[in-house]
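EI: anyone free to look at a 133-residue chain?
SC: sure, send it
EI:
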Amino acid sequence: MTTNISECINTILSKERELLVTALAKEMRYLVQRWHYERRTKAEKCKTKLTPSAEASLFKQYQLLLRMRLDPASDTIYTVFDGDKNGVVNLDRRSCSCRRFQLEQLPCAHAMIAIHHRKRDVYEFCSDYYSSA
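SC: here you go
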C-alpha cells in the first residue's frame, strides 16, 4: 500500500491511463464517487459516537488506566503515576506530557483517569474529527 494519494490513484487507474483525457477524467470521477458512497454507507451503519478505530483506541487507553494512580494539583491539572511513563495532564488545554493527547486529539490513559476523576464524559475531550455523526 502506498502513502501518496497520487501513487494510489495512478496504480488503480493504470489501465485507464491509455484513454483520452475526457474518458480518464470520467473514470476518475466514478472512482472517487464510488469511494465516497462506500465510506458514507459504512459511516451510516456506525452506532457509536466515534469512529470504530477511535472507539477501539479509547477502550485500549481505558484498560491502561486501571493500574494508575492520580494526584490532583488543581481542578484541571493532575499528575498521573503509571509505573512506566508518568504524565502531567491539563484538561483545560487538552494536553498531557506524554503528548499522545495532543497528537491524536483523543484522551490518553493519563487524561482518561483525570477525566474520570472529574466525573466528565470522555467524549467531550475527543476531537470532532473522530465523530461518526
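EI: The longest strand covers residues 77-81.
SC: 👍
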